[in-house]
Design a protein that fits this description.
CATH class of the largest domain: Alpha Beta
Bound molecules: nicotinamide-adenine-dinucleotide
Number of domains: 2
Helix content: 40-55%
Shape: globular
Distance between the termini: 53 Å
Mean pLDDT: 96
CATH superfamily of the largest domain: NAD(P)-binding Rossmann-like Domain
Strand content: 5-15%
Strand order of the largest sheet: 3-2-1-4-5-6
Low-confidence stretches: none
Structural class: alpha/beta
Radius of gyration: 20 Å
Order of helices and strands: EHEHEHEHHEHEEHEHEHHHHH
Number of helices: 13
Length: 295
């Protein structure tokens, strides 16, 4: 069992840290939000007042933060974790960020003799709670091998996509596709409703037909179809529109670097930016359904 510093206890980080505690690790936690730290302490974590405090005595650091600037500041900023971590500490960042930031942190870590793995996740808050996340890693073989057993305490599928930053590129490809599927599923469900179909019945039909996809199986965007989905809970919790808009921005940036054509991704980016601009940023990303909903 390891002593792990876990930093970033939001919608994803909190359940992930909880699974590490349940697996028997000693988990030192920090978040800028004191309430989040307090909630984890009640579940057996050791609460810390600063990120550096959390890292003291930890063999592994895991971060789950909103975006690249947070990750760069935390690891590379003045008094950053790379300077504070003891020799041999394994650094794992599970946030979804731009590959350039992941590579910059990896290079900074290497200069300090530390191993850094970018390990963004797929599976949402339900996967984080159930410990069934997919981890998509970038970094050296040695870093991946060291990270894998710990990631297995929080996930079911663990992939090594390639060198530093590769995990982020793979994750961005996945999320661009997810946004397109969510929008396509929303417009198809509303089209059926407009013609008097019951969205539950239509969902069952499409789930086992050629239009079947993850959003229909696990994350139906139409309220009332799937009681456990954010759509049936006022689009609360889950994966924020702001974060999807961020990921799509990263996808467009990544596509621009290689002049790759991503027309569906570009349209999804515009729609999510529009939706975020209408005050939906903190809501779950399946709320894009409301752009089509006439009820
Ligand atoms: P969130 O906003 O709920 O949580 C982020 C947490 O980081 C917050 O509690 C915030 O206070 C904390 N934080 C920010 N800066 C910090 C700092 N310097 N030190 C300590 N704590 C800090 O976000 P989330 O939904 O948990 O997502 C986290 C990451 O995971 C994002 O990159 C997101 O794109 C990715 N992700 C989210 C989901 C999802 O379904 N929510 C799924 C896959 C990937």
């Amino acid at each position: 069992m390891s002593t792990i510093a876990f930093i970033g206890l939001g919608n994803m980080g909190a359940p992930m840290a909880r699974n590490l505690i349940q697996a028997g690790h000693t988990v030192r936690v920090f978040d800028l939000n004191e309430q989040a730290v307090h909630a984890l302490a009640e579940q057996g974590a050791l609460p810390c007042h600063t990120s550096c405090g959390a890292v003291a005595g930890a063999a592994v650091v895991i971060t789950m933060l909103p975006a690249g600037k947070h990750v760069r500041d935390l690891y590379l900023g003045e008094g950053g974790l790379i300077r504070k971590a003891a020799p041999g500490t394994l650094l794992i960042d599970c946030s979804t960020i731009d590959a350039a930031s992941a590579i910059a942190v990896s290079e900074g870590a290497a200069q300090a003799g530390l191993e850094f793995v970018d390990a963004p996740v797929s599976g949402g808050t339900a996967g984080a709670a159930a410990g069934t996340l997919t981890f998509i890693c970038g970094g050296s073989e040695a870093g991946f091998d060291a990270a894998k057993p710990l990631l297995a305490d929080m996930g079911a599928n663990i992939f090594h996509a390639g060198n530093a930053g590769a995990g982020q590129v793979a994750k961005i490809c996945n999320n661009m596709l997810l946004s397109v599927l969510m929008i396509g599923t929303s417009e198809a469900l509303q089209l059926g409703r407009d013609h008097g179909l019951d969205p539950k019945v239509l969902s069952e039909i499409m789930k086992v037909s050629s239009g079947g996809n993850w959003t229909l199986e696990k994350y139906n965007p139409c309220p009332g179809v799937m009681p456990t989905a954010p759509a049936s809970n006022g689009y609360q919790g889950g994966f924020m529109v702001d974060l999807m808009a961020k990921d799509l921005g990263l996808a467009m940036e990544t596509a621009g670097q290689t002049r790759s054509a991503t027309p569906m991704g570009a349209l999804a980016t515009s729609l999510y930016r529009l939706h975020a601009g209408q005050g939906n940023g903190p809501r779950d990303f399946s709320s894009i359904f409301e752009q089509f909903d006439k009820d």
